[in-house]
Amino acid sequence: MTALTLADHQWKRDDFTISTERQRLDMDYIHQQLTEKSYWASAQPRAKTERAFAGSLPFGVYHLQQQIGFARLVTDYTRFGWLCDVMIDENWRGHGLGSWLATCVRAHPELATVHRWMLSTNDAHQLYQRLGWRVVQDPQKLMEFPLS
User: Nearest CA to 77 among 109, 45, 37?
Assistant: First the structure.
């Protein structure tokens, strides 16, 4: 079995770019946004942020050369993808960048065979529903292992 090697992809719109180039990610910015602006990773150490991005397909959102958003996809590139850590800098919200980012993730050519897409959100249901996401139809099938 060989390791999966993926080509970097990018999407452009006006002065904005979405890119999967790992070397372009500003991990200082990402960690700061997650710990200061998110409800799900507020106390997360930097090492956990780096490890999470290393084990995922990352997406950076850039205005010119400045990073202004990001997301990551936990995936096997074949059947399953979990969209997480989706953030757009609060100074850039209202420009449709979050919707565009989620759309680009779904449009990534290496993910064409993925048929189970999931995410979890406390407050962005309407945004994702506009993009075709829906509430889990059979939640009784899902299970979790509770942390003690």
Answer: 109
- Phi, psi at 79, each rounded to 5°: -125, -25
Give the 3-state secondary structure of residue 16.
strand
Per-residue pLDDT of the chain (148 residues; tens, 9 = 90+): 666 778 899 999 999 999 999 999 999 999 999 999 999 999 999 999 999 999 999 999 999 999 999 999 999 999 999 999 999 999 999 999 999 999 999 999 999 999 999 999 999 999 999 999 999 999 999 999 988 6
Task: Record the pTM.
Answer: 0.93
Strands (E), 1-114: 10-13, 16-19, 57-63, 66-75, 80-88
Q: From 16, 8, 29, select the one nearest 96 (Cα to Cα).
A: 16
